[in-house]
Design brief:
Shape: globular
Order of helices and strands: HHHHHHHHHHHHH
Distance between the termini: 46 Å
Length: 405
């Protein structure tokens, strides 16, 4: 059990905050696509378009919000953004029509993007550099533990297929962000980083780092698979039951909870991070190929293919996450972690921006060909990450020499 818990202190409190809001998120992720189609009455393509626009806004504001966390203090910024995220989720309860959905989704994506950057800056201020990848692995485990519980609750809503059950899921998610904000207040404050005279947002001019962040974004196209693409694929292209969405989500989150920390232990620097990412690309291609086999087959065979693909997907996810965490922090200059993580974390928002529209187009329109194209893109990006990260590392300032005795 001790291996599943982070060390006492800030790491454990950060993990508790992560756990608090992830329970609601887990229920939201497995039900949102069907809620917006069955209850709100939106077409899948309109959902994809709305989420694309919302996460586009979120990806733009992530860097300046990360800079605010650096300059004003990450703890207070994170608390305010957690409250804003909860309010945005609650607004989905009254959404009726595409334009209200779009407005609520933009608020949600903006707050989520800023919260992610502020949390990374908070972690950097409270955890020693050598312990950050391990701390992030514990946070990911806490995240997935909460998602697994939430997905189980979402599965109940999917079984009920009632508007009231779906709305209860959104209410739980909104309250979970309120609890997250209260837990973050228990952390010690982190002093704001001093801004050099005339300093601007430097990360936007750091092309080597931007390339690493761009490649990471391609790797993150796996993110909308479980929450959006796979539910629609199961519902419209396979004979598998819809409640399988919840089961696969629980399988994914439980595996990450149990094995993410162990996977991250093998990543200790640039070389091991790149190696982990390459392996994740190979597994991602295999994942897509296996998922493609589930279409047009008997229900039992579809379930088998979907379960097998989910196992490959979670292995790829854990390797890619550990490698990317190491690169994202190691290549960020001191004093600008929030700003740089705002750009690096924008990979999540851009993946959610392009992912819904790209995946619904590739998978729902092209079927097997679309799955293979998706896997090929991720594999190519994983192999390009090596030279890109080495180039970025070569542009970092050399460590200061130790003073002579």
């Amino acid at each position: 059990m001790s291996r599943l818990l982070p060390p006492p202190g800030p790491q454990r409190t950060l993990a508790l905050a992560q756990l608090a809001n992830s329970v609601g998120d887990g229920a939201y992720y497995v039900t949102s696509a069907l809620y917006f189609t069955h209850v709100v009455g939106l077409a899948p393509t309109r959902i994809g378009l709305g989420l694309t626009a919302a996460w586009a806004v979120g990806s733009v504001v992530g860097v300046p919000l990360g800079r605010i966390a650096d300059r004003r203090g990450p703890r207070g910024t994170a608390v305010l953004l957690a409250l804003a995220t909860g309010a945005a989720v609650a607004s989905f309860l009254v959404v009726r029509g595409f334009l209200p959905f779009l407005a609520a989704a933009c608020c949600y994506a903006t707050a989520q993007s800023g919260l992610a950057a502020a949390r990374q800056a908070l972690l950097a201020g409270l955890v020693a550099p050598a312990e950050r990848t391990g701390a992030l692995a514990y946070l990911q485990s806490a995240l997935n533990a909460g998602l697994a519980v939430g997905a189980g609750l979402g599965g109940i809503a999917l079984t009920a297929q009632a508007g009231a059950a779906y709305r209860a899921v959104f209410a739980v998610d909104a309250l979970s962000f309120l609890l997250c904000a209260l837990v973050l207040l228990r952390l010690p404050p982190v002093a704001p980083a001093g801004a050099p005279p005339g300093a601007r947002i430097e990360v936007l001019r750091d092309r080597p780092y931007a390339l690493v962040a761009l490649l990471n974004t391609v790797l993150l196209l796996r993110m909308p698979l479980l929450s959006l693409a796979l539910p629609l694929w199961i519902s419209e292209r396979t004979g598998a039951p819809e409640w399988l969405v919840s089961v696969l989500f629980v399988l994914n989150t439980a595996a990450v909870t149990l094995f993410q920390v162990r996977t991250a232990r093998a990543v200790t620097g640039l070389t091991t991070a790149v190696r982990a990412i390459r392996r994740s690309g190979v597994l991602a291609l295999l994942t897509c190929a296996v998922f493609a086999l589930s279409a047009g087959t008997p229900a039992w065979l579809a379930v088998t293919a979907l379960a097998g693909g989910s196992v490959l997907l979670v292995a790829a996810e854990m390797l890619q996450s550990a490698g990317s965490w190491q690169l994202g922090f190691d290549l960020a200059p001191a004093g600008r972690v929030g700003e740089y993580q705002g750009l690096f974390g924008a990979g999540v928002t851009v993946a959610r921006t392009l992912g819904p529209l790209l995946l619904t187009t590739l998978l729902m329109e092209l079927g097997t060909t679309g799955w293979l194209l998706l896997g090929g893109m991720i594999l190519a990006a994983s192999y390009a990450m090596g030279p890109a990260s080495r180039r970025a590392a070569a542009t970092r300032p050399a460590p200061a020499a130790a003073p002579a005795a």
